[in-house]
Specification:
Chain lengths: 322, 247
């Protein structure tokens, strides 16, 4: 018998890799020019958005097709608090996640009546309603133009400081979500993902757990939205358009939706692609499509999912044979 | 302990279960038998709240539990396993059972303490009871069919049931696995004092371990009685055993 009685995997390799990446991220502003610092901030907050989607997608098995609604709503909430309300940044920043969570809760309560694809379809249509509202309500949201030049306090006005702020908040949020995934709630959620019917039979109130998970996901998407305001000082309706939701969905699948950091990796790949390929061609989505096709064919569990499987073969299987 | 009275359920006019009756006393092992499509699984679904009956009542320990949702019925300490393997595919064997234990303890709203430190002894005890302890770190999708059927039962045991419903526990098992499963059922009944209700096509198994047998044909209860009574009943022989004289 092994000493490790809970069946937990060996996480040391993952920890070392995380530490190296963390160090690199910490030193990044000193190593790379300004543009890359900005890009890294966008990758981090988009990764946070993708991870929050994956909290319900990969761990909860809920097909939340239109996740960006909460991202956009969070960003708009923060932006409006700052511009229309004249509140301080910190209050505005808090408002983002809160609005994200409230909207997440409302949509969840309506949508959990359905399951799987039907959930997704209803969610995409309700989400589009939110988008239309933002898009059309010129007097309040600025409509098509969005809101530009949102004032930031001096502390966060330079790219480096907003980068460090984004890094800090993202890591904090990831840690909290990781703890949640590993908690009994997370176990129940994964049970629901694998088998909702059986979960009910063992006493789990499936719909209520899903609503809570979706609210949490909305909260963290709202954090990502608020971070975007800090980094970019703008908001625009495209932030809650369904095509962005699709991109975020692909980030999860590409990176590995059964892994915790897969969506972050997916975000890094896709945001970089979008940035660099779109300087050569307007058809950057075609490049994304081709890459995604190959991933589906050869790495059905995503890039990180594939790596994890290989590592498991090396680390876990010899110990199982004991 | 469990009392099902004239329960009826139809799907689009087809009466899957009509006027079925069933009594199970504490500590008994009761088998439900009947030809394919007799309504055995539907009956179990009605008892466990997966389906709502059109009419009739289900009483458990004197309490009316008709039409409660499954997660409420689970709290009354009724657990079930499924005919078609119904486990949590991506979780390990350990996690499969652990999530059931966590759920029973009402811990699934705990968002911040790590699961891996909770309910370990309890979960390991269940795995030892069913003989899966050495495989606890395997992902359940990789288990053999027989082991997955046992895991089915182990998940059901995670709810610490008094009343265990097994839907064809040995379906698709090899002879060795079947005899292991019989031993397990006996063990659960004798050592843990569980009341067991199961349905099965393997008559040898049924007559070997059931105290009493209920026979269903086309949704109706034909008879409920001891093995001898059932064996000799003319209606059962006609409907089920093809009319041949086995008595």
């Amino acid at each position: 018998m092994t000493k490790n009685i809970s069946g937990e995997k060996d996480n040391r390799t993952a920890l070392i890799v995380c530490a190296v990446i963390g160090l690199f991220l910490f030193l990044l502003p000193a190593l790379l020019p300004r543009f890359y610092v900005y890009l890294a901030s966008i990758i981090l907050l988009t990764g946070l958005l993708a991870t929050s989607l994956n909290f319900v997608l990969g761990y909860g098995g809920v097909f939340q097709f239109h996740h960006c609604v909460f991202y956009g709503a969070g960003a708009y909430a923060t932006a409006l608090m700052l511009t229309k309300g004249g509140f301080s940044l910190w209050l505005g920043f808090l408002m983002g996640p809160i609005v994200g969570a409230i909207l997440g809760f409302i949509l969840a309560v309506i949508c959990v009546r359905l399951s799987k694809l039907y959930f997704g379809m209803l969610q995409i249509s309700l989400g589009s309603l939110v988008w239309v509202t933002v898009y059309r309500w010129y007097s309040f949201t600025g409509g098509d133009d969005g809101i530009h030049g949102i004032p930031m306090p001096d502390l966060l006005s330079s790219p480096n400081s907003s980068y460090y702020f984004t890094l800090l908040v993202t890591i904090l949020c990831l840690v909290i979500m990781f703890i949640m995934v590993k908690s009994p709630f997370g176990s129940a959620l994964q049970g629901i993902r694998d088998n909702p019917g059986r979960s009910e039979m063992i006493g789990i109130n499936v719909k209520r757990h899903q609503v809570v998970a979706l609210t949490i996901a909305g909260f963290f998407a709202g954090v990502a939205g608020a971070l975007f305001v800090v980094v970019d000082n703008t908001v625009f309706p495209d932030m809650l358009f369904w095509s962005l939701s699709l991109e975020v969905f692909i980030m999860c699948l590409l990176g590995g939706w059964f892994t915790f950091l897969g969506p972050m990796l997916g975000a890094a790949v896709i945001v970089s692609l979008r940035t660099f390929v779109s300087t050569f061609t307007v058809y950057w989505a075609m490049v994304l499509g081709i890459i995604f096709m190959f991933v589906i064919f050869f790495l059905p569990t995503g890039v990180l999912g594939y790596i994890e499987e290989k590592l498991n073969k090396m680390i876990i299987e010899p110990t199982i044979k004991e | 302990m469990l009392e099902v009275a004239s329960i009826t359920k139809s799907f689009d006019g087809f009466k899957a279960v009509s006027q079925a009756n069933l009594q199970v006393e504490k500590g008994e092992i009761v088998a439900v038998i009947g030809p394919n499509g007799a309504g055995k699984t539907t009956l179990f679904n009605l008892i466990t709240g997966v389906l709502r009956p059109d009419s009739g009542t289900v009483r458990f320990k004197g309490e009316d539990i008709t039409g409660l949702p499954p997660y409420e019925i689970c709290k009354k300490r009724i657990s079930r396993s499924f005919q078609i393997v119904n486990v949590f595919q991506r979780l390990t064997v350990f996690e499969n059972v652990q999530v059931a234990v966590l759920s029973r303890m009402g811990k699934t709203w705990n968002l911040f303490s790590p699961s891996k430190k909770l309910m370990i002894e309890e979960t390991n005890r269940i795995l030892e009871n069913v003989g899966l302890i050495t495989k606890r770190r395997h992902t359940s999708a990789l288990l053999s069919h027989g082991d997955r059927k046992v895991l089915e039962i182990a998940i059901a045991l995670g709810g610490d049931p008094e009343f265990l419903i097994l839907d064809e526990p040995t379906a698709g098992m090899s002879p060795e696995e079947t005899s292991r499963c019989i031993d397990l059922m006996k063990h659960l009944s004798e050592k843990l004092g569980l009341t067991i209700l199961f349905c099965e096509h393997d008559m040898e198994l049924v007559f070997a371990i059931a105290n009493r047998i209920m026979v269903m044909v086309r949704g109706k209860t034909i008879i409920q009685g001891t093995c001898e009574q059932v064996r000799c009943d003319q209606a059962v022989q006609d409907a089920y055993l093809g009319g041949s004289d086995v008595c």
